Amino acid sequence: MTGGGTRDGGQTDGPLPRLFVALAFTTGMIDAVSFLDLGQVFVAAMTGNIIILGLGLAGDGTPLPSALSLMSFAAGAGGGGRAVLSWPGNRHRGLLLAVGIAVQTVLVCGASVLASRYGFAEPWARWPIIVMLAFSLGWGYAIVRGMKVLDLNTTVVTTTLTALFAEPVVPAKQSRRLVSICALLAGALVSGALRRVLFPAAPLWTAVLVLTGCTVITCVAARRSDAERWR
């Protein structure tokens, strides 16, 4: 998920930058689980999936998990993009984000239930987990892009990392970019720790809790009396 577009940061974005940091954190947790437990496949970092798919097609491993993830992510992104385009212009963008995160929450929760009940080893359970997680992140990525928040990326950090070092130093922009990268890193770090200390699906359940909190906070913030300033 990345915030692109023409809006400037600061006041016009309201609580969105902080929410995007939390979303980047959950992405790090979820992608770490997918890579470690779902057969070295990514559900957010599609660049990595394309490389893994190419290797699989060349005979080095199976291409099915990465292909399934790519298709699911694309379907989610398509759905999220349509949601952004069809959202009424007179309705607050925060409510769109709240709906988007709520859909993500339901999908990640479904994947968490499957992972907790059946584990990651059974192929018949692994495939729907990949589909739900990749679809949820593609969906969320498209909707966050529709928020048009600059210099905050919640899914893919290659562009953010390049901009961090290649563009002229503007403190406000650089701090946002650095925070989004660190949030993704922190999510992966926490995910690894939770897997070792608790159980393999613990990072997914933690992501569900964070996403639920983000949904509630976004919905409440969009209905506050001062919400017009970041409409």
CATH architecture: Up-down Bundle
Whole-number mean pLDDT: 86
- Main-sheet strand order equals 1-2
Measured by DSSP, the beta-strand proportion falls in under 5%
- Helical region count? 8
Query: Oligomeric form of this entry?
Result: single chain
* Head-to-tail CA distance between termini: 20 Å
Q: Helical content, roughly? A: over 70%
Order of helices and strands: EHHHHHEHHH
- Predict the CATH topology: Growth Hormone, Chain: A
Pfam family, one: DUF1275
Keywords: Membrane, Transmembrane, Transmembrane helix
InterPro entries: DUF1275
Structure summary:
It is built from eight helices and two strands; from the N terminus they run βαααααβααα. It has 231 residues and is mostly helical. Strands 1-2 form a two-stranded antiparallel ribbon.
In words, what does this structure look like?
There is one protein chain. The protein is an all-alpha fold and 231 residues long. It has a single domain (2-230), classed as Growth Hormone, Chain: A (Up-down Bundle), CATH 1.20.1250. It is built from 8 helices and 2 strands, in the order E-H-H-H-H-H-E-H-H-H. It has helices spanning 16-37, 46-57, 64-86, 93-118, 123-146, 158-166, 171-197, 202-222; strands spanning 2-3, 152-153. It has a two-stranded antiparallel sheet with strand order 1-2. Helix 1 runs antiparallel to helix 5 (123-146), helix 4 runs antiparallel to helix 8 and helix 6 packs antiparallel against helix 7. It is globular and about 50 Å long. The two termini are 20 Å apart. 47% of the residues are buried. InterPro entries: DUF1275. The chain crosses the membrane at residues 41-58, 64-85, 97-118, 124-144, 178-198, 204-222. Keywords: Membrane, Transmembrane, Transmembrane helix. Pfam families: DUF1275 (PF06912).
